[in-house]
Design a protein that fits this description.
This protein is of the alpha/beta class. The chain folds into two domains: about 5-195, Spore Coat Polysaccharide Biosynthesis Protein SpsA, Chain A (Alpha-Beta Complex); about 200-250 and about 260-300, no CATH class. Helices cover about 35% and strands about 20% of the residues. Strands 1, 2, 3, 4, 5, 6, 8, 9 and 10 form a nine-stranded mixed beta sheet that branches. A two-stranded antiparallel sheet has the order 7-11. The longest helix has 22 residues, at about 265-285.
């Protein structure tokens, strides 16, 4: 048995210092694809012990997210992995998972293990716990490879998508398997820090909306808004008070040895998305995006284009 953690990233050096160490005691190897980072992400990942492949060698504009995951799976197979952990840079494997790795023996070839995908909410020590889509959310992270199944490939309506570098947000399944076994918190979980810095999270979701509008050749803004409306939340004191009752403290057994990211360092590593939105506004005109629900961010509203 050889367990390999597979991870894509672009400009996430802050998160990598959390995600990669969380996989140390579980993985025999960590293999990453650096999708054209302009910060020190590649260097950080290498220094943390990961094997890093540069995506620019294959595709000037980066790859469709499905293709990146396919490439990672191919690399994992070349590295002789039998089991793969598909982890994103803004996630961490829970502290208790390393003590419960016997679960992996229950996976037949072609099966995946699902774990709770815990939304770390507006902080570093609380997770969402209400009736929303962010609660009790399970995702497939660990895959016992059958060396046959691959990821479905994605086609966009706008065939010029590469020109605008909008290939990434496609939200594919994490593993290629549809045959899944679910494990509870006592076995392990995956902590998702995307929501911890709320301003950064909102910028990322606006970037998703803009990218998907371009992918769809400027059509279906209403459908895109509907898809991402669950990411909106009113600002203010009342909302913050309500969230105290809609979140829970992360149990110590889940994160006692996790190297949490620095909350203040998260937004700067997302700034490249704002630069990309500015480029899209310059290329396509601000009016192209007028019907999207992105104008609640002053950083976007105040772009001169």
């Amino acid at each position: 048995m050889k367990i390999i953690t597979l991870m894509p990233f672009r400009n996430e050096e802050t998160f990598l210092k959390t995600s990669i160490p969380s996989a140390y005691n579980i993985s025999d190897e960590i293999v990453c694809i650096n999708d054209r980072s302009t910060d020190n992400s590649g260097k950080v990942a290498s220094e943390l012990g990961a094997t890093v492949y540069e995506n620019t060698k294959n595709n000037e504009y980066g790859s469709v997210e499905n293709q990146v995951r396919s490439n990672l799976l191919k690399l994992g197979r070349e590295h002789k992995g039998t089991h793969f952990i598909f982890l994103d840079a803004d996630e961490a494997l829970s502290s208790n998972l390393k003590d419960n790795m016997s679960f992996i023996k229950k996976l037949d070839k072609g099966q995946s293990a699902e774990f709770m995908w815990m939304s770390i909410w507006k902080s570093l020590d609380r997770y969402k716990n209400d009736k929303s889509v962010w609660t009790n959310n399970y995702k497939d992270f660990v895959y016992h490879d059958d060396k046959i199944v691959n990821f479905e490939q994605k086609q966009f309506k706008n065939q010029n998508y590469k020109k605008y570098d909008v290939s990434w947000p496609t939200h594919p399944a994490r593993t290629p398997s549809l045959n899944r076994i679910r494990f509870g918190l006592k076995t392990g979980a995956v902590l998702h820090y995307q929501f911890s810095n709320w301003e950064a999270f909102q910028l990322k979701q606006c970037w998703y909306r803009c990218a998907e509008l371009i992918q769809n050749d400027g059509q279906n803004a209403g459908g895109i808004n509907d898809k991402y409306r669950i990411t909106l939340e009113a600002d203010g004191f009342v909302t913050d008070i309500k969230n105290k009752f809609k979140t829970k403290k992360i149990p110590k057994y889940l994160d006692h040895d996790i190297n949490r990211p620095n909350l203040d360092d998260i937004y700067p590593q997302y700034a490249w998305r704002l630069d990309q939105i500015k480029n899209w506004f310059n290329d396509l005109g601000k009016d192209y995006f007028r019907d999207l629900e992105i104008w609640h961010l002053d950083s976007i509203k105040n772009i001169n284009a």
